[in-house]
């Protein structure tokens, strides 16, 4: 007999029988569950488990809609009163979240790019965090989580966390020091390095371009119309280009001091519509947050929350490979009572009927049908 949405408990029990959940120091964390009739997050909390195996057995018996663990480590995680739990330390977590537009594959492409920017351009290069201290997770639906596995970072207070995320989001950048007119180099630290990268990009894009092509390019990146001819003319001058290549930006400042301000705006505007647009500042600042447990299924997508290697961010194919590895591709038969759109590698419309498909696709199909019936 094919599985239907009435058999979801059975399907999820089968999944959790072989699933591998991942929570470090579970005995110090609050565990919370989302019931199937919960639509505003987990309501069953706090729940205490001393060992990860105990949680796995619990989920096999009671496959809840969602399972979460606190980012905080508590002396008494089972205490209901938050003031009596006694917070010991908190994971430093960055939450990247973005609406899915297009296919999930395209969503993965965009989120991988943003996540790599956070890791390589900021955590590693600006903060000196070792790559082996950085953990990456796909939440199972719209989010990617980046955790710094470092005791010093776990002991950061709220003020330090706020300063760090504000810096990454470009909220507290000293604009006057971005393009000071002094010599910069590829090894310049912090936002000066990001500014230097913009100059190098401009030089690369305008190499061999005529004046008209430069005007179009500078309009496209956001230089004000009344100054595009000025900067285009300057970039047509070999002496100016050579000076900029050497990191001497005073050639722009001397011609029109407003040009450096324009470049500052281009840099920060790009950042705020890129990485900064998908970062949730409040999550990083807070010391009391719940995150989905890696290895558990996301009720909205039917996909698992999974751990990723930094190298997996090079292609969505690597993420799908991990999903298939975690859930399994053994064929199972399901029966859909309604038409659904299954969005994995690409959007696929499945009409009401019976299908035989790999388990990693079948679970999302059933959960999507259930979600559609509840909305």
- The CATH architecture term of the largest domain is Alpha-Beta Complex
Uncertain spans, ≥5 residues at pLDDT below 50? none
Mean of residue pLDDT?
A: 93
Described by its quaternary structure, the protein is: single chain
CATH superfamily of the largest domain: DNA primase, PRIM domain
Structural class: alpha+beta
Strand order of the largest sheet: 2-1-3-9
- The percent range for helix content is 40-55%
List keywords for this structure.
four-stranded antiparallel sheet, DNA primase, PRIM domain, 15 helices, globular, 375 residues, 44% helix, alpha+beta
Task: Walk me through this protein's architecture.
- With about 375 residues, this protein is of the alpha+beta class.
- It folds into three domains: about 5-170 and about 280-325, DNA primase, PRIM domain (Alpha-Beta Complex); about 175-275, no CATH class; about 330-375, no CATH class.
- The protein is built from 15 helices and 14 strands.
- It has a four-stranded antiparallel β-sheet, with no helix packed on it. Strands 6-8-7-10 form a four-stranded antiparallel β-sheet. A two-stranded antiparallel ribbon has the order 4-5.
- Strand 12 (about 340-345) and strand 13 (about 345-350) form a beta hairpin.
- Helix 1 runs antiparallel to helix 2 (about 50-60) and helix 7 packs across helix 8.
- The radius of gyration is 25 Å and the shape is globular.
